Amino acid sequence: MHKEFLMGNEAIALGALASGVNLVAGYPGTPSTEVLETVAKRNPGSVYVEWSINEKAAMEVAAGAAYSGARALVTMKQVGLNVASDPLMSLAYIGVKGGMVVLVADDPGPISSQTEQDTRTFGMFSKLPVFDPSSVSEAYEMIQEAFELSEKYGTPVFLRPTTRIDHGYEAIDVKDPEEYRQNDPAGFIKDSSRWVIFPRLSVKNHALIEKRNAELSSVLSEYPRNLIHPARKDDCKTGIATHGISYMYTLDSKASQDARILKVSTPFPFPEELALSFLDGLTEVLCIEELDPVIERALLQICGKHHLSVRITGKLTGHIPPSGENTREIVDQAVRKLTGAAEEAARSDPGASQPSLPVRPPVLCAGCPHRASFYAVKKAMKGQKTIYCGDIGCYTLGNAAPLDMCDTCLCMGAGISIAQGVGHIEPDTKCFAFVGDSTFFASGITETINAFYNQADMTLVVLDNSTTAMTGHQPHPGTGRTAMGQIVEKVSIEKILCAIGLTFVRTVDPLDHEKAVQTIREAQEESGVKAVIFRSPCIAVSRPAGVCIVEPDKCIGCGKCIRELGCPGLVPDVDHKKTKIDASQCTGCGLCGQICPTDAISAADRD
User: Which H helix or E strand runs over 24?
Assistant: First the structure.
């Protein structure tokens, strides 16, 4: 054993390695990404690691490994679970031979997601056990325990850390590589009565799942990470039921010492016997949780089932905010009100004395090629009735002023299909769908085939910056390398589009503004599905040399470059009369020089 100062995701990865994991597959998504990256970085050489094309593929790859007796880990964020739910729901009925942990990082807030989904609720829906860590050190231990339970009961198991666990840090004791468990898979054994899902098998296994979960409820009541903190007062009548990071916030509140505390580390199957011990003698319980009232509903059900006269409060009663991330202040105030320190809670209200933080909206980086792509389309389509359907990625920031080039954004790949739907109803609208290169591979190919087959009239714009930029520059099929560091043949977006049947497929550098605008105009002269690939690397991958220069004598102070591009490298001078370059941000992309009406901006030499 040795001690390391680790991020939560790093601790989870090392816990998986210590448990003898054989295969790790996933799709990048904040806040889960660093788990797979750490496994790849700290790989002892015996673990297969891949960035799969999407979460569904990752789930199926991991399932195949677990069918073969391997220990498999699949990683994603909460919205990725939606993509993976099709195989997972059937896998819950089929089960596994080896251990299989499905790590789903939830994002209360949300900080970097479309939704505030709670995987604990999905665990109940799918009837799969859920582990819910409350600290970095617990996450390290818990993933090892999750593999043990998965293997013992032949079922996939959820590990559900949240952002504050994933990206928190703690100095913890971890095993040395020579202490890692060695797992030698026995291999896949053919048995169609087990591995081929049919209705008859599903009915039979459904009954077994319900029986297993009833047993697990009792077993998990003895699980040491589910625990009760006795109150400091012997005659305590109030309790707090909590979990995850909210448990740590509860312990931080001094007022919690006057309450009995139930920590729920396995929200499903719920540890009913432990909960009954907790409820004994109490008259009121406050449930502090993120995001759904999972614990609150479970306690209400237990109280009704056992005819207990205990008042259960929480999200359903308005005592805890119904949405958003819990904070120490929110938890402290709720605990103080529960324990009778309401006046002190009011005095401790941070909003009464602290100023609001300044608003810092996200913005495309200086020199980002997506800005050039959006601007080219905007100029080419000026004066025409258009809709610009966006997607998930850095380029979602194209919605902000002054570009204003993202009219819709739903989920990965949906922009292509939404553009089709609008076009079928409003044939006079020029429909555009923007999708990144990674997202095209993950979920855009099917939608493009649908558009071609169903005779849509739209323009697909692939924003190819040669990486998965938003989540940390992970490789994808178009980059020519894998998570294992292998150099492989790149998958050509152009060849895929041509194979589908598209006849108008053009590739252009968006930083060549005139050619980019002309290419979009040419696309509009064609009917059907057209594709324009704007290819220019992310500035974090390949940064141009030098910076642009403004010649003050030529600048007339029109502000067109600032007003139309919104690049953070372009700023007004002290008198707000002319433009100057912020050399600390400018990447020398040269787009501003191409649109300057007086040629006052000299572009850097990109060669």
Answer: strand 23-26
